[in-house]
Amino acid sequence: MTTDWSEDGAGNGPVATRVGPALVVTLPRELDDATLRALRGEVLDTLRRSRSRALVLEASGLDLIDAEDFRQLTLVARTASLLGARPLLVGLSAGIVAYLIEAGVDTRGVRAYATLDDALVALGAVHAQVDNEAASPEARDAGDADEGGSST
Q1: What are 9-53's pLDDT values in tens digits?
Q2: What is the pLDDT of residues 56-84, one digit of tens each?
Q3: Under 8 Å between Cβ of 31 and 62
Q4: Which of 8, 62, 89, 96 lies at 20 to 30 Å from 71 by C-alpha?
């Protein structure tokens, strides 16, 4: 399931995708009040209907975010938590993080990860798949080849 929530239908808004137990929402490059209001309504409605265990707000495409927009995102995250979904924020750039800290923005309670893969592993969404691939004979053979075929 992938849903484009852009107002113009041109793919400029948030895009939601279900990945295992998580609803992953890819944020657009720019956020404004209208986008954040729409995001909150759509995300919460989708979480309620899908009963996702987690909400991942994927922010790697954000160019910048101000303190108020960040506060609005954390409100979405906290509300998702009241619906039973664990909120995670991923992909914030170093520049955005530095700004948030320097501006004294309250980031307590925000669970953040560097990448979407890190967040999904933390949720256990890909853990079983990674373990199964590592345990397969093909993966073991590839590992032996990488190590020069030596065994101990």
Answers
A1: 445 678 989 998 899 999 999 898 888 988 899 998 999 898 899
A2: 999 999 989 999 999 999 999 999 999 99
A3: yes
A4: 8
Token pair 């279900």 is found at 18
Q: How distant is the alpha carbon of residue 150 from its chain centre?
A: 39
Reported as half-sphere exposure (CB side, CA atoms, 13 A), residue 118 has a value of 12
Beta-strand relationship, 2-4 and 15-19: antiparallel
Q: Name the nearest CA neighbour of 90 among 23, 45, 43, 36.
A: 23
| Cβ neighbours of residue 41 closer than 8 Å, sequence gap 6 or more | none
Contact (Cβ atoms closer than 8 angstroms) between residue 89 and residue 112:
yes
pLDDT digits (tens, 9 = 90+) for 97-114: 999 999 999 998 889 999
